[in-house]
Amino acid sequence: MDRQTIQTASLVVIAIATVATAIGVWTHHAGEGKATTNQTAQKGSAPTIVQRANIAQSMTTPQANNPVTKNEPITQVVFDSYEHDFGTIKEGEVVRHVFRLTNVGEHPLIIRNARGSCGCTVPTWPKEPIPPGESAEIPVEFNSKGQVGQVQKTVFIDANTDPSPIKLTIRATVVKE
Question: Which tens digits make up the pLDDT trace of 28-80?
Fold first, then answer.
């Protein structure tokens, strides 16, 4: 391994440990020195520790290790908004919002993947490169079935941008019918 790879790997470990510590991802198992996680969460509660760790890890991946951008030129993108609030909706309702983006960089924008923080949040994305100066849309559907109360979900966009992933957020207040 070359020096830069080792330095990058070290930074990844430090970043993940820092974020994990900051959000309380790990708890010390009494007397055994093992890291344990809270595997359960009740409906409507905060994300489990495992879910928070997965989100933290995806948000701390440095560009050098990002397979999307490893051998591609970096470009810049601007969204019309990075957050959307659906307001109050009924449980079981499926709602949709379209995030609009513009490639303001000098290279084509290549979106490799878009993923929701859970199965109830489903984004779709353009599969073809978006030329500089052009715009595109990322529709996001949220299925509120089984959700009640204040809900916040995240969509991560893996692209040849810095930073990557790009984080989009949707919110809703879900009420029982």
Answer: 333 333 333 333 333 344 444 544 444 444 443 444 444 454 678 999 999 99
**Is there a single domain that holds both residue 122 and residue 58?**
no
Tokens of 35: 């890291």
Identify whether residues 105 and 153 lie together within a single domain. Answer: yes
Beta strands, E only, 29-163: 35-36, 77-79, 83-90, 94-103, 111-116, 121-123, 135-143, 149-159
On whether both 78 and 39 belong to a single domain, the answer is no
Structural domain that includes position 172: 72-177
Q: What are the b/e assignments for 141-175, b being 16+ CB within 10 Å?
A: ebebeebeeebebbbbbbbbbeebbbebebebebe
pLDDT in tens, 38-49: 333 333 444 445
- Among 50, 65, 80, identify where a domain stops: 65
Residue 20 has pLDDT above 50, yes or no: no
Q: How far is CA 49 from CA 20, 40, 103, 115, 159, in A?
A: 9, 9, 35, 19, 27
Q: How many domains is the chain built from?
A: 2
| Whether residue 54 sits in one domain with residue 25 | yes
